[in-house]
Amino acid sequence: MKLTIKDIKGNPQGEIEISFPLVEDGRGTQAVHDVVVAYRAAQRLGTACTKTMGEVAGSGKKPWRQKGTGRARAGSFASPLWRGGGVVFGPKPRDYTKKVSRTTRQLALRKALSERLKAGDVVVVSEFTLASSKTKEFVTALDSLHLDGTTLIVADGEKNLELACRNVANVELTTSDRLNTYDVLRSDKLVFTRGAFAKVEARLNKD
Description:
The chain is 31% helix and 14% strand. By secondary structure, it is α/β, with parallel strands linked by helices. The chain folds into two domains: 2-30 and 98-204, 3-Layer(aba) Sandwich (Ribosomal Protein L4, Chain: A), CATH 3.40.1370.10; 45-95, no CATH class. Strands 2-1-3-6-4-5 form a six-stranded mixed beta sheet. Helix 1 (29-42) crosses helix 2. The chain starts with a strand and ends with a helix.
């Protein structure tokens, strides 16, 4: 499969042949699901915490004597039945991380990128170098590439690009070594610099 290379003005600059093997239909779907679930689970803070009977503030004194008052017996102000008492089986800080093998992550990324390439959602530019860090210049380049919806830009070492795209809605920037399956699936369009795309291909060609 070949991809057309463009400059940031949208003009064709030749073609490149995709070097990594594309994943055929019907394979890798479960791997994508497992990796996305693991990624989103890892984003959870897991800091929710409630106090048990032994942790709530208050005296250990018995509220009233056991018999003779006409009221139900009570042994503690920290009872879960009372307002301000402890919580039974409430959440405690925990780690939601799920383990996914390297082989599964590799297959998932190849599958996700293969589907986006087949759908025509990937744009490769020769370079995404801006003369300044002004947002206006960056928006002009986006308009020239005719990108609609959310856009993920994959580029390495472009300082002006990093500064210029910060205030643009629906645009995210990442690097070739940080690109993951969730990033590939999330945006409507993927824009790679030629150098970044070559590095992603090298990642996907590793055994």
